[in-house]
Amino acid sequence: MALRVAEEGLSSCSGCEVAILNLGERLLALAPQLDFVHMPLLMDHKYFGQLGDGDLKRLEIPQAELGLVSGGVRNQEHLEVLQAMRANCGTLVALGTCATHGGIPALINGLANAELMERYYRGCETNDPAPDPTETVPPFLERVYALDEKVKVDIYLPGCPPHPDHIAEAVLAFLEGREPALPHKSVCDACPTVRQGKGQLKSVRRFLQNAQYDPAKPIADMRCLLEQGLLCMGPVTRAGCSGADGEAPRCLKARVPCRGCYGPVRQNGNQMLDMLNALASNGIDIKTLPDRAGGLLRFSGAHGRLRPRPAAK
Amino acid sequence: MAFEPKILAFSCNWCSYAAADLAGASRMQYPANLRIVRVMCSGMVHPNLVMEAFSKGADGVMVLGCHPGECHYLDGNIKAQARLAVVEEMLDAYGLEPERFRLAWCSSAEAERFVEVVTEMTEAVRGLGPNPFRPTRPEDAQEVA
Amino acid sequence: MAKTINIQPVTRIEGHARISIQLDDQGRVADSKLHIMAMRGFEKFIEGRPAEEVPRIVSRICGICPWMHHTAANKAVDQCFGAQVPPAGRKLRELMQVMAHISDKILHFFFLAAPDFVMGAGADYKIRNVLGLAQAAPELAAQVVKMRQAGQMMLERFAGKVIHPVAMVPGGFAKPMSQKERDELLAGAGEQLEFAKFCMKYAKENVFAKLDQDALSLGRITTGFLGLVDPADGSLNLFDGALRLMKPDGSYLDFNCRQYADFLGERVETWSYGKFPYARVWGEGFSMDLEAPKGIYRSNTLARLNVCDRINTPLAQAELEEFRRRFGRPAQSTTLYHWARLIELVYACERVLEILEDETITDPLVRNPVEPRAGRGVGCVEAPRGSLIHDYVTGDDGCIASANMIVGTTHNLAPMNMSVRRAALDAIKGGQVSEEALNQVEMAVRCYDP
Out of A277, A286, A303, whose CB is closest to B142? Predict the structure, then answer.
């Protein structure tokens, strides 16, 4: 019998779902073994009955062996959908960095909701100022949460978006009844650039001009971008973006430094703390970095890591 | 009940822990708010440990090492010094007062200095009040680290 | 008995929304709304970030069209910093942005919209989707999946990352194109064009030929239109140009993107987190009344084909001429968004080939260094879902001081609400609610590809 799969996106951009589609022909090959019972991007199953007349207190998600949830938890609806997914799915996968660590939307955790509302509904140049929408829209939670702050998560699949190879691996492993083989080292471990040693660098600079490299030569001939003085989050970021047999991390392939989209190397690590420590221990003045909290926790601001700055006393 | 701060001190084996030992042997009085963890060198105190201490409820954290130039491992305390900026940055990000963390040096003979910095720290933290992120439930303890 | 119908979530769309339809005591549609259920606040949380980092952050507004946000943001930051983009950098940017339109259009037409037409609006919801389509027409599905994937991988191979790209940078592009890469892309782009021609033929024979008067009046409303045109000849331009705001009668105003706030305003309603842009410059205010709309204009494919004077690639121009002969200018039928989408697919493929055929695209100078400084920039491109506007102000440190954005789908929030109302009024009569009727309401939304 085919494996029943349910998929949901919460506070998200649909990029994780596109990553699933980017499996391409592999997805078609897997399709006979999978029975998608719920997936709002592609399918028409509704929460409150197909005639829209169900009880709004009973959000329906069909039973499934495997549940995939992308996006963080930002409002009451996300929370209810997540709880229904947990209740109806045997195994729950947190798909993508928003689900595992808050992702980019968790940058809002550095601000209070009231500041956001004031700016968005009354402070934009094009806006006719108006009160916050409050009727029939789900209320905001106080911040953006990763899934495991609200429910138990069985498999973590970080990445913004996760590489299709690892989505396939997670599903295949589940079909075969084994643990998925997912990367657990750092981006640097998967990066072929040349490291010549540390110690000469005293500061890091902003990415205002391109890295030094010979475009005719492979990435394996390019000097490590951190050693070139560019902030690169490789040392404190989980590997995986280069896929199962990739030549290099994806951003490095574009010759730009890593910004940490796979979240910390260990699920409960702290990218800001680890990066600052790595820089400071190598004699780099961390004050030369602009926007330290927002930059280093760009993808992992959930779990209480990024929080509003308290008012000055 | 009056607020009694809990202060965790990471003390290096070769200097500051010996100073604490000497203070004790000399029957010098210092606040009972201090909990000492002996480490081989102040340079091994990763900022993670400091932040974890705050997340587990410490109201103040100290790292105590040898004077610059006197490190048993040559430059461990210089590394600790470099990491001071990291701790300050993290405290700032979490909205904790910088005075809740202190890096200080004292040699194995400086029992009086040990008593002095510990007393100062205790009084300073007493003035700041409890760590606002002091967990009330075990699961909250995960939040700050 | 009066009741409320909730279509939640609206499915086979790219965002997150809910439709509520109120029926009165006689079972007539008394009211309906399309609610946007969330707001993430990118405008607010990019404040304080170094501007050169922002193009890598705002791409996350949309995982389906991240290249559009990436491009618009880079154009805005260029202006803030006074950067001059070298010619090859500009060509690579347009190439990437237009290529990204190709797989987006294939995704929308076949994965999201086509099941309604191929399986039927009233087909069982369990098979009315792309997987049902794959079982009903396996060869077609295999071809579609393969070509969409190929388009995505062309971007990924050259630019490293296809979803949430990083290769464009303020001042230009992060890497030059080698001759080998150019040759590979040329070969791939040729195949994409052949596939686009096939899609157009397939859709004309199997979908558009069957559009009767009922289908063409699904969610029909009368509005103005907005889109970028090339200032030189008024032709379709997805990458750059002047904004053209057309009234329902076909008269129009062209304006520089930097002036957008003089021409467009945004309303807030109490029942949706999304804002409702309207044509402030028309001076008639804002109303979503079906009989007497005020300030309402539409964006996205149909709008672009209505506002442009011509298309400068031959196959797409021929399609546009046929489209105009049949439906006039401006065409108002909401269903025609799908047709317009495929004409743009042909254009995008032709344009990609044109750009690649220019051998100066391999010039190694692709980026000029930039200096952080105080400034203002408005970056505008045509995203698949409409005119995309990123407006940034930077401080002396080159960090974002404030930002305003109007994204493609947002322009269509008011028209979508109106089309939902129209479709609900037409599909639900005498309190009779069927799955097919509710799907027709959703089909009206899907035209806009929100």
Answer: A303
